Amino acid sequence: MTSIRSTVLAAASALALTACGTAETAPENGDAESAASQMPKAEPLGLEDLPTIDAGLTLGETAPLDSVFQTEDGQASLSEIVAKGPAVLVFTRSVEWCPFCQTQLKGINGIVSDLEQRGYTLYGVSYDSVESQNRFSKNQMLNYRMLSDESSAAIDAFGLRDPQYTEGKAVGVPYASVVVIDTSGKITAKSVSGDYRKRPTNEQVLAIVDSAS
Q1: Distance of CA 49 to the CA centre of its chain
Q2: Please, how many CA atoms are within 13 Å of residue 106, restricted to the half-sphere of its CB?
Q3: How much is the pLDDT for 121?
Q4: Under a CB-based contact definition with an 8 Å cutoff, are residues 94 and 128 in contact?
């Protein structure tokens, strides 16, 4: 009996260690559902719990209004976008190969109406092509627009390029960020994640918007 019990306990410990290792070394590639299962379970966390870093334009600064994005309808400058109303830009790495981004973009689809009630329009921003963004948007039935910044020019203008990537497909990706901009172009709230695997929950995104000055 002692031998059997020891064997069972050893197997359970091995499984627990394996599970922990998987969660801490989540691959960048793979489907969004796999990434979601590896991310921490949602808890009622406040903004102070977000692993943010100091990067990019600061609160009160004017966003790069002359930045031009590609869309399925052609082009749209940031000045044209905010002229229609305050905007919430969610900068993300890739709709094609980043499962954490895919999970986030699918998730924030659930707060489009909450943001609209607050007077804001939601936009997703990535360096993917318009075609890739459109394919993802249609497959996931997103209720907000994606903005393509293939050259990463807007990402650079916001000061959000992740500098750790100097070669490979990730060159030019932004830090996972949420930036709130008013109709004058002023940045009124922002959150820049230092860890691409940890994104603000929907509740935290709404809290970021509600904190806008």
Answers
A1: 16
A2: 16
A3: 97
A4: yes
Q: CA separation (Å) from 142 to 71, 85, 212?
A: 14, 20, 25
Q: 134: Cβ–Cβ under 8 A, 6 or more apart, which residues?
A: 72, 146
Topology, domain 45-210: Glutaredoxin (3.40.30)
Contact 193, 199 (CB under 8 A): yes
8 A C-beta contact, residue 78 and residue 186: no
Cα–Cα dist 10/24, whole Å: 21
Compute the distance between CA of residue 117 and CA of residue 21 in angstroms, rounded to an integer.
41
Say whether pTM exceeds 0.70. Answer: yes
Q: How confident is the model at residue 73 (pLDDT cuts 50, 70, 90)?
A: confident
Q: What are the residue ranges spanned by the domains of the chain?
A: 45-210
Percent of the chain past pLDDT 90, that is, above it, reads 69
What is the full DSSP assignment across 54-100?
--SSPTTSBP-TT-EEEETTEEEEHHHHHHTS-EEEEE-S-TTT-HH
CA-nearest of 121, 86, 112 to 202 is 112
Tell me how far apart the alpha carbons of residues 148 and 151 are, in angstroms, rounded to a whole number.
Answer: 9
- For 39, other C-beta atoms within 10 Å of its C-beta total 16
Is 70 exceeded by the pLDDT of residue 205?
A: yes
The pLDDT of residue 42 is above 70: no
Matching residue, tokens 């940045």: 187
* Residue 174 β-bridge partners: 161
